[in-house]
Give the backbone structure.
Amino acid sequence: EVQLVESGGGLVQPGGSLRLSCAASGFTFNNCNMNWVRQAPGKGLEWVSFISGPSDIIYYADSVKGRFTISRDNGKNALYLQMNSLRDEDTAVYHCVKAHSGGWYLLDSWGQGTLVTVSS
Amino acid sequence: EIVLTQSPGTLSLSPGERATLSCRASQSVRSIYFAWYQQKRGQDPRLLIYGTSSRATGIPDRFSGSGSGTDFTLTISRLEPEDFAVYYCQQYGNTPPTFGQGTKVELK
């Protein structure tokens, strides 16, 4: 069974930083593309970032480009999101999501998410 | 980026009724790159349909998808109590992938 468990969320002041982690199990992690998707409280879904299995292809949403960095450690079955220069509008639940084989951004297994709150 | 607009915003129906949800794209989307997700209250989203009309693993056949170009539809043939949720469409063929704003299917 695929399991994705995020951690690292919390309350941070505007301009601050956080590093999110996602522990993956139940599948061959290094073969799978991964995404981060966020959902602001009471709002819809917003794609944040993509990383390929070997980490050779990385994409970001314009809203986070230059501030967020996605990475992975295939030896540890872990996905990360380093978030710098955080803004109020980054407040959301951040989900680690495994991509389906049918598309880089086709999202077939979701973690429960970790809440990031940016507020002074 | 491709903007997806879902309609209606809320659909009020009774169990056993048919639900028809629409999603319109701001530009043409290749059918193989269109999906639908279901999100129940307090739960993570779940992939329902991909490639416009293929059901994901474990999804019952009362869920079906159709469409092409800029207009796509999710149909739930007979609503079960567990189907009352928010549904999101998504295009995943272009970067960035984008979602519709969601349609809430609520109990009438």
Notes: The first strand of chain A starts at residue 3 and ends at 7. Chain A has a mean pLDDT of 97. Chain A has no helices and eleven strands.
